[in-house]
Amino acid sequence: MRMENKMANVYLTGAGPGDVELMTLKAARVVKEADVLIYDRLANPEILDMAQEHCEMIYVGKQDGRHPVPQDEINEIIYQSSLKYDNVVRLKGGDPFVFGRGGEEAIYLFERDVKFEIIPGITSSVSVPAYAGIPVTHRGITTSFRVVTGHETPDKKISQVEWQTFLNDETIVFLMGFHNIGLITRKLIKLGKDKDYPCAVISRGSTPEQQVLVSTLENIAKESKGMPTPAIIVVGEVVRLREKLKWFK
Ligand code: SAH
Questions:
Q1: Which residues line ligand 1 (CB under 6 A)?
Q2: Rounded distance, CA 134 to CA 216, Å?
Q3: Where a domain ends, among 88, 119, 150?
């Protein structure tokens, strides 16, 4: 039976970057109370073990050799679950609104009068560099950072990115860009960035399998070949601070 005064039926929830302890208390609570968990590939599957025994698990992520579930189908799965259950948890890596398509899912629910709550998460764009000893801003080095999609469109362009504005010392964090690292670094060099400019690839950040590679724009694509995903690319002078700030083993 549904409780009439309940605040929300669907929780669009950030799971953090990997380390389970980087989940919020609120995210942990709703996962523990969930009747159904709708999730994609998470950096840490341990989170699923926190659910109650009767909790239904629906995986909607990519699987080797199979296409991912299309977004409109995911929206519908969430909606249908909300008709069936009191506590629907849509769990996403990092933060649900940072390249998480959480906004699209929330709009779908809004249009169908389903109550929802957003539970922000610790986004990988900031926390994964932190686990590699790289602060995204640092006094005297850079006053801003930018989080950019490195995802390629079918016409082989990185979508809608304003490349020509990347020429100052702003830190750039590319998500979903590892498979395009050659394209991205060549483009930055072509636009005038020094080929020796510092950058890093961080793979499986904040998990026991974390790997960090520090290199230059010119060499990083070659040197990072074969590093496992998920991985982010950080471009900026702040990468050099890792020498002193490296702490996570
Ligand atoms: N909503 C997420 C991002 C989703 S896009 C967030 O806020 O973190 C998925 C991309 O995030 C991956 O392609 C990768 O670039 C990055 N990513 C997520 N978790 C990561 C991790 N533990 N280590 C490295 N990169 C990660």
A1: 17-18, 43, 92-95, 98-100, 123-125, 128, 175-176, 202, 204-206, 230-232
A2: 15
A3: 119
Residues 160 and 114 in one domain: no
Q: Count of CB atoms within 10 A of residue 89's CB?
A: 26
| Residue 226 included in any domain | yes
Distance of CA 180 to the CA centre of its chain: 16
Q: What is the dihedral of CA 125, 128, 133, 134, to 10 degrees?
A: -20
Q: Are residues 113 and 144 in the same domain?
A: no
pLDDT tens-place string over residues 136-175: 999 999 989 999 998 876 566 766 677 777 767 899 999 9
Q: At what angle do helices 71-84 and 102-110 cross, to 10 degrees?
A: 50
- Which of 99, 119, 139 is the last residue before a domain boundary? 119
Predicted TM-score (pTM) above 0.70: yes
Same domain, 129 and 239: yes
- Burial zone of 93 (CB within 10 Å; 0-12 exposed, 13-18 middle, 19+ buried): buried
Domain count within the chain: 2
Which of 62, 115, 157, 222 is flagged as catalytic?
62
Q: For residue 4, is pLDDT > 60?
A: no
Segments of 60-167 assigned E as strands? 88-92, 116-119, 145-149
> Is residue 4 domain-resident?
no
CA of 112 to the centre of ligand 1 (A): 29
Q: Residue 1 domain-assigned?
A: no
The radius of gyration computed from the CA coordinates of the chain, to the nearest angstrom, equals: 19
Among 203, 147, 175, 208, which Cα is nearest to 20's? 208
- CATH number, residue 83: 3.40.1010.10
